[in-house]
Amino acid sequence: MSARFQELDWRQTPLGELTLRRRRDPRSGEDVHEIKLNDEFLMSSLFTVAEVELARLALADMPREPLQVVVGGLGLGYTAHTVLEHEHVAELVVVDALNEVIEWHQQGLIPAGRQLAADPRCRLVHGDFFAMLRSGDGFDPAQPGRKFDAIIVDIDHSPRHLLHPSNADLYQPEGLRRLAGLLRPGGTFALWSNDPPDDEFTADLANVFPTTRAEIVSFPNPLQDRDSTNTVYLATRS
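RESULT FIELD:
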């Protein structure tokens, strides 16, 4: 295999073929790590600005300490790492449906993965975020129904572009109300989206949360020689 491209691992999962690969970016000369599910890119270390901003925006106005945080979707770990950089975060629960991704972090196949897995404040939980929300037990198997200061989600491509049809109920009013019920008063729900702000989804958020907004995050896209944008939705429980 070319020194510029290496498949680090391949797994067959219930969701399809999962691949972790590393390639050398000819522009920067740096290694790029990518996770693919079937033919779709789940994550690339070439584009991490919005994943970092997702965590920063979610925790920017948190008055409470110590903070208890959930991240839905592990990926390459950029959102989780940014959460742990916040000085008041005492505990982070990261939920991912793909145990293979958790193992890649634990085995050090993903840069800084072992550091994340070894952080005493962080627990990597294998589970279906959407099913856990639907069950009413919440995201901490050790403490069913436990509430958090922030729930940060980066799983689907957008509220309309889903990895699986069963995820759709989170983005509807009933699912949003269930999620709000797992936040402490003043807690924040933050959601990453690859699409521009969605007026219908923003209206659904506003019907559940008293304070909502959609932040557009811009970042350089070297593949297209221009800037690209993602959206971060933020909603705060009263």
